[in-house]
Design brief:
Elements lengths: L16 H18 L2 H11 L12 E5 L6 H13 L3 E7 L2 H14 L15 E4 L13 E5 L7 H14 L2 E7 L3 H14 L3 H13 L3 H10 L7 E6 L3 E7 L3
Parallel strand pairs: 1-2, 1-4, 2-3, 4-5
Antiparallel strand pairs: 5-7, 6-7
Helix pairs in contact: 6-7
Length: about 250
């Protein structure tokens, strides 16, 4: 199946906020059903301890970009709280609607995390920025980037990979793995999971725009990422995860 990218409705700057919120809810439901957080948390907990020994006064600085509605960050927050991990979370997104949604998401779940003060801030630090052009937050130790790369053409995708790999010693990028089966399955799944017309359009469009693991490796090579410090693994369902860690 050839890659073909068309504009996604959620990327429209004039998208109605109500439709945007509805779409973010649908995506959160998809993330939950597909357990998107699992490969991300697995790699964070595996690789972060190899960087240094953290403390409550010097927590790990973790950025999620783009953060969407914050449902993945909430999973990080709950995991850190449950295991008493000193993680300071950051959320970056170009959309003010998405950043407002993150605030609402964390406010709604505050009563469920009474011990969060012992491991970090009760809500992430928000950054409104363009990941391709704006400065990224300083002193980051890990960046997770989920379901964003397929929005970009190869030149911009290469730029993104180069910038993220330079901004933190640990990069975990999770995205769709393009295939004909994935395309048809996504057409069906989005209609069963959510009523959002945005998701109905953008879901299959995202699969057609996605890269394959082989293409992702080529992009990483073009971004001058050392292949000796890089892994790309296929994930269920129709996903792939790139992990890059700077040598110590």
């Amino acid at each position: 199946m050839q890659r073909h990218r068309v504009p996604e409705l959620m990327d429209a700057p004039d998208l109605d906020p109500a439709l945007h919120h509805h779409a973010l809810q649908g995506l959160a439901r998809i993330h939950t059903l597909t357990q998107t957080h699992r490969p991300l948390l697995k790699r964070l907990t595996q690789h972060l301890p190899t960087l240094r020994t953290p403390s409550p006064d010097q927590p790990f600085q973790i950025l999620d970009l783009p953060a969407g509605g914050g449902d993945l960050l909430l999973r990080y927050h709950q995991h850190a709280n449950r295991h008493q991990l000193p993680w300071q979370l950051h959320a970056a997104d170009l959309s003010p609607t998405a950043l407002n949604r993150i605030t609402q998401t964390f406010q709604a779940h505050q009563p469920r995390s009474p011990r969060i003060e012992s491991v970090g801030s009760p809500s992430p630090t928000l950054h409104q920025l363009n990941a391709l052009t704006d400065p990224l937050p300083p002193n980051l130790e890990a960046i997770t980037c989920t379901l964003f790369l397929h929005h970009l053409d190869p030149d911009d995708a290469t730029t993104l990979l180069r910038r993220l790999a330079a901004a933190a010693p640990l990069l975990i990028l999770h995205d769709l793995n393009r295939s004909r089966i994935a395309y048809h399955a996504t057409q069906l799944a989005t209609r069963l999971i959510t009523r959002s017309p945005i998701v109905h359009h953008d879901g299959p469009a995202s699969v057609r725009a996605a890269y394959t693991p082989e293409e992702l490796h080529q992009l990483a090579t073009a971004a001058n990422i050392n292949p000796n410090h890089l892994t790309i693994q296929r994930q269920f369902p129709f996903r792939m995860t790139l992990t890059h860690q700077h040598p110590q």
